[in-house]
Amino acid sequence: MGPPQALLAWFDRHRRELPWREDTNPYRVWVSEIMLQQTRVETVIPYYQAFLARFPTVEVLAAAELDEVLARWSGLGYYRRARQLHACAREVVARGGFPGTASGLEELPGIGGYTAAAVASIAFGEPVAVLDGNVERVITRYQAIAEEPRQRAVRARVMAAAQALLEASRPGDSNQAMMELGATVCTPTRPRCLLCPLSEGCRAREQGNPERYPALARSSKKVAVKLALAVVPRPDGKILLLRRDDSRRLLAGTWELPWVEGVADGERGRAGLERELGVRYGARWELQEELGKVRHGITFRAIEAQVWRGNVSGGDSVAEGREAGWFAPAELSRLAVSSLVAKAVRLATGPGGIAGQRDAS
């Protein structure tokens, strides 16, 4: 039994039961692959199930409003994926269906080489290998490739090796087997080599130090970012949110609390933040009291945010615009908000926050 066949035999015995493996419909496969980008499997499962319950077909997704798609995506992060998913759905419907090849799929918005290969192999049976982080790790260990795999020439070598390990009669299962192996056995640390179907012939295992592969690119250091967030309540308990501009690179189209960079140390610093809020949003702002701090990591940023109970003069006029509105905290579940905003609102509306103060008054 050759390596491709051994890998498939292992997969048939040990594959995880995942909801996107129940149906090879290209729409379902595509949604799962987009969601799984930079997101853990256990995180994706409930989002995937809820998303498919609301948007069961590509036609339903294409007909939906972008706001609702973003809201259903809320909490998964990397909102650009949701916007591209929606745009791609509309393009697929306009074309009359998904292209059946990786090259055709790559012509669609938001579909790169990896996603195209995954959908083409799993949904359409095209014998084209995928290359993600898990596959990259398996291949660099199997062949003891010492160079950093993001280099173009090295990546081409890794891709060729992945293609050579693909079983052409079952390309979708073969690709999933390789990804599953990297996720569950050939892990970044403490790989379980004794359980690996590719252990025989694995050069890194023969050398006795598989963890040295792959060579990792020097990671960027986290940049510390300090913010001040203003939670502005109305007497009815609703709070002011503003929509982030669609042209922004990060979190485009999501709802956010009024914010500025910096923190306040004493009254003088607080006054400076209030002026900056006025410059950013107009009107006159007052930061009345600090409710606490929340922390959040996004891409290379490590954010620490002061959460303030605030007030804005002319707040109703601010909220009349298309880009602002008053919402009850319970409504956040149907809005596209970042995890940072959700944390800040939970802090502000929890015990001792603005809700407790309103109840006591």
Layout of secondary structure:
Layout: H1 3-14, H2 26-36, H3 41-54, H4 58-63, H5 66-73, H6 80-95, H7 102-105, H8 113-124, H9 133-142, H10 152-164, H11 171-184, H12 203-207, E1 223-231, E2 239-243, E3 255-256, E4 259-261, H13 266-281, E5 284-298, E6 301-313, H14 315-319, E7 324-327, H15 339-349, H16 354-360
Parallel strand pairs: 1-6
Antiparallel strand pairs: 1-4, 2-3, 2-7, 5-6
Biggest β-sheet strands, sense, barrel: 4 strands, mixed
Strand content: 5-15%
Secondary structure: number of strands: 7
Tell me, rounded to a whole number, the average pLDDT.
88
> Class by helix and strand content?
alpha+beta
Separation of the first and last Cα atoms: 76 Å
Note poorly predicted spans.
Answer: 356-361
Radius of gyration: 24 Å
Estimated helix fraction: 40-55%
Number of separate helices? 16
Shape: elongated
The helix-strand sequence is: HHHHHHHHHHHHEEEEHEEHEHH
The largest sheet has its strands arranged as 4-1-6-5
Protein model, in words:
This protein is α+β, with helices and mostly antiparallel strands and 361 residues long. 45% of the residues lie in helices and 14% in strands. The strands form 2 sheets. A 4-stranded mixed sheet has the order 4-1-6-5, sandwiched between helices. Strands 3-2-7 form a 3-stranded antiparallel sheet. A hairpin with a 2-residue loop joins β5 (284-298) and β6.
Summarize the structure.
With 361 residues, the chain is α+β, with helices and mostly antiparallel strands. It has 16 helices and seven strands. Strands 4-1-6-5 form a four-stranded mixed beta sheet, with helices on both faces. The chain has a three-stranded antiparallel beta sheet with strand order 3-2-7.
